[in-house]
Amino acid sequence: MAERYVMSIDQGTTSTRCILFDHGGRLVSVTQREHKQHFPRPGWVEHDATEIWRNLEQIGPKALAQARVGPGQVAAVGIANQRETTVLWDRHTGIPVTRAVVWQDTRTDMLVEELARRPDAYIVEELCGLHVATYFSAPTIRWLLDHTPGLRERAERGDVLFGTMESWLIWKLTGGPDGGVHVTDVTNASRTLLMNINTLSWDDTLLDFFGVPRAMLPEIRPSIQTYGVATRVVPGVRIAAALGDQQAALFGQTCFAVGEAKCTYGTGSFLLLNTGTEPVRSTHGLLTTVGYQIDDQPAVYALEGSIAITGALVQWIRDGLGLIGTAPEIETLARSVDDNGGCYIVPAFSGLFAPHWRSEARGIIVGLTSYITKGHLARAVLEATGWQTREVVDAMNADSGLDLRKLKVDGGMTANNLLMQFIADVLNVPVVRPMVAETVSLGAAYAAGLAVGYWPDLEGLRRNWHRAAQWLPAMDPRLRAEEYDNWQRAVERTFDWIKPSHEE
Amino acid sequence: MPGPVQSIERAAAILRLLAQGSGRLGLSEIANSLGLARGTAHGILRTLQLVGFVEQDEATGKYQLGAALLHLGTSYLDVNELRSRAINWADALAARSGEAVRIGTHLQGKLLVVHHVFRPDDTLQTLDVGMLLPMHATAMGKVLLAYDANAAAAVPDGDLEQFSRRTIRTTRELTRALSGIREVGWAADVEETTVGEASVAAPIRGYGGLVVGAMGISGPVERICDPHNRPRLDLVTFVRDAARAVSRDLGAPRW
Ligand SMILES: Nc1ncnc2c1ncn2[C@@H]1O[C@H](COP(=O)(O)OP(=O)(O)OP(=O)(O)O)[C@@H](O)[C@H]1O
Questions:
Q1: Does A230 score more than 60 pLDDT?
Q2: Which of A332, A467, A468 is closest, CB to CB, to B80?
């Protein structure tokens, strides 16, 4: 048949989504299923990897049914996934040995502090481009091995396997205990703290440092390459790509050239800048990470600025304060006033990420007077996302020596016009939203389609990218400078809130 | 004449019950008070919850009146919410049709543009969100007039404002056009607002089939219409499918 599709699987933090795209990169069908968030103790966040797999078993065939096609009309499957979340499972039974530990989980904070104090800790950032922190996988693996009796021995024998979500799903899709392929892609591997950022292979020094046995690790493969053929969900279809969700969005936004950047606005926000085939080391609080790797071509690197709380602040206004009924209503509320009334909210709920990396900071609302209404708070909520973006862009410009000329955006918050205009205003560059807002899924689809020749080359993909909306800067430069100064002063007031002696 | 609908009577009784006293009741309390089986009460409560008339407290599982009941008079779907819920399908429609897409709602006798997707040709275009357009001269506006009795009631009697030679002139003419729109389920505007421009639109429905907005494409007549100046049927199908997909996501019954 002439009409064939590419399937993407977006295994996200709150849900798993399955989307079929056609040759024009257009969305044909969408299915989605949320999975349960387990919070067994304060600071712990877990997922049931088996539940996620079962969800995929449901939504995969449903996406095909919605488009009235069979697996035979799917050219390839690509996977994008929540990054760093750690799954350990038994290779013989295919059953996870514990619940998956989610990137937000902070159970390793003591361990991380201990590791970071070691005299040889400097080697970590030098080898893998990341600093030791709770959300990367290596400390989690170590913690699980230390706290589960007998697990280390089983891992050393290779009876227990490690993987991030894409590894787990690829292994299950390709047969599980019956010949499942145990692989990971470079972008996901680059978030473990175990991969050498230059050689793109597991590094013995790092494995030693974290005490992780090599036998449990998947094989590192390019992001875009056929890993195997599915025997479940979409039998007979090639699994041809995997990328961490943020890297998938970079690919879906067709940021293929050095200097191109995108920001995905969801629960948190992630700005990635393509820096080409050489890793750029940050001196301004950004992460060095792999952007993507096509087959045996050289890997393309990216600088990443991660912002912990953006959409989550809107959720807090909704669920924590009950000021709005749904997230989009924040815009209605914010438009009920003309400005922030002098009020600023810095959402350092669990410290600040890029570019500050202050884990002891906590959130504040400053500038409160009796004049402030909930409308002003709503403005301050949206502006917090704008200013946090500005801080990351300033750091990117300083690290890369390039000046960002335009920002491509995607994610749930891009439906908010007031926010998008504000971001254009404070960055003083055009903000553009592509026709397909589901760039994470699209990126995974593009990658898989490229691997199997469904799309010929990057240029072809670029031609599929179309502008759906654009916001141009329109803020008076004096006002911008004043407001930025106010924001920065507000940020400073969040520092040093948690006392160093107080350890949880 | 058929008798009263039992489940509606029961739903009304449940709402009355919740409106009295502290207003937070568990399933058994509600079922016992009204002498209903738990299953029956639960079914009705779930439906009431779906339409927003009842809310369930996550921690205690108890039911109370929903916020939607308190705001029954005001617009029941926030326009920013509508945009968020429709954005994927609006993008898909623009990509498929190759034309600009807009979503509109009724605001005080005018059509308010709440979402706009550029024509996918990467030419310079500016966002129209927030713009007010005439109801009787646009495809989206006519869809809303056809399905939203309040919007229709806001149209003054007599002669209508003219934007081009083809704009509908009188309320009588308009009434005839609207019944035609209700018959086919979509509306068109061929050079009724602007010479050389045409548009096609279909209704977006929410729970119970209530029309909450309109979604449509617009572009040059020669691209939107066939040689007889009638909207191309393939484009009409794209528009209707997209509006239906949004409606389905908003919880509308299938039609
Ligand atoms: N119109 C809006 N205005 C402001 N914030 C919004 C709006 N719509 C959604 N949000 C926020 O965006 C976030 C949801 O975005 P998105 O659906 O992209 O989630 P996500 O972080 O990608 O989740 P996942 O990891 O499960 O895919 C929520 O935090 C929500 O509060």
A1: yes
A2: A332
Residues B90, B41, single domain; the answer is: no
Mutate to test the interface with B, among A326, A409, A421 (most CBs of B within 10 A): A326
Tally of domains within chain B: 2
Q: Is B146 part of any domain?
A: yes
Across the interface, whether the CB atoms of B91 and A416 are under 8 A apart is answered: no
Residue A314 C-alpha, separation from nearest chain B C-alpha, in angstroms = 14
Q: How far apart are CA A74 and CA A69, in angstroms?
A: 8
Distance CA B103, CA A396 (A): 36
A435 to chain B: which residues are within 8 Å by CB?
A: 91, 94-95, 117, 120
Tell me whether residue B202 is in a domain. yes
Is A417–B92 a contact, with Cβ atoms under 8 angstroms apart? no
Q: Is the CB of A310 under 6 A from ligand 1?
A: no
Return the higher-pLDDT residue of B171 and B223.
B223
Last residue of a domain, one of B15, B34, B65: B65
Residues of B in contact with A466 (CB under 8 A): 94-95, 118, 120-122
Same domain, B12 and B90: no
Average pLDDT, chain A: 92
- How sure is the predictor about B76, in pLDDT bands with cuts at 50, 70 and 90? low
Binding positions of A: 13-15, 17, 83-84, 135, 245-246, 267, 311, 315, 412, 416
| CATH classification of the domain holding B14 | 1.10.10.10
In a domain, B220, yes or no: yes
Find all residues with CB under 8 Å of A274, minimum gap 6, and list them.
Answer: A250, A255, A256, A257, A258, A259, A260, A261, A291, A300, A301, A302
A173 token code pair: 């899709």
Select the residue of A25, A331, A415 nearest B87 (Cβ to Cβ): A415
Cα of A246 to nearest chain B Cα, Å? 19
Taking CA atoms, A306 is separated from A95, A126, A196, A357, A430, in Å, by 33, 20, 21, 10, 21
Kindly report the pTM of this predicted structure: 0.85
Does the distance separating the beta carbons of B94 and A27 come in below 8 Å? no
- Looking at the structure, tell me whether residues B41 and B140 fall in a common domain: no
- Whether B214 and B92 share a structural domain: yes
Same domain flag for B61 and B75: no
Between A43 and A450, name the one with better pLDDT: A450
User: How far is the CA of A337 from the CAs of A376, A418, B12, in angstroms?
Assistant: 7, 12, 38
CATH of the domain at B208: 3.30.450.40
Residue A24 contacts B where some CB pair is shorter than 8 Å: yes
CA distance A361 to chain B (A): 30
- Is A417's CB within 8 Å of B129's CB? yes
B119 and B38, same domain (yes or no): no
Instruction: Identify the pLDDT of residue A100.
Output: 95
ipTM above 0.85, yes or no: no
Q: Are residues B141 and B241 in the same domain?
A: yes
Please identify, among B37, B65, B93, the residue that sits at the C-terminal boundary of a domain: B65
In a domain, B1, yes or no: no
Distance CA(A66)–CA(A50), nearest Å, equals 24
- Our answer on whether the CB atom of A24 is closer than 6 Å to any ligand 1 atom is no
- The rounded distance, in Å, linking the Cα atoms of A62 and B241 is 19
Which amino acid makes up residue A256? F
Give the pLDDT of residue A502: 47
Please give the residue range of the domain that contains residue B193. 71-249
Quote the pLDDT of residue A504. 44
What are the tokens at A85? Answer: 């979340």
DSSP state at residue A359: T
CB atoms B67 and A325 under 8 Å: yes
Whether residue B27 sits in one domain with residue B107: no
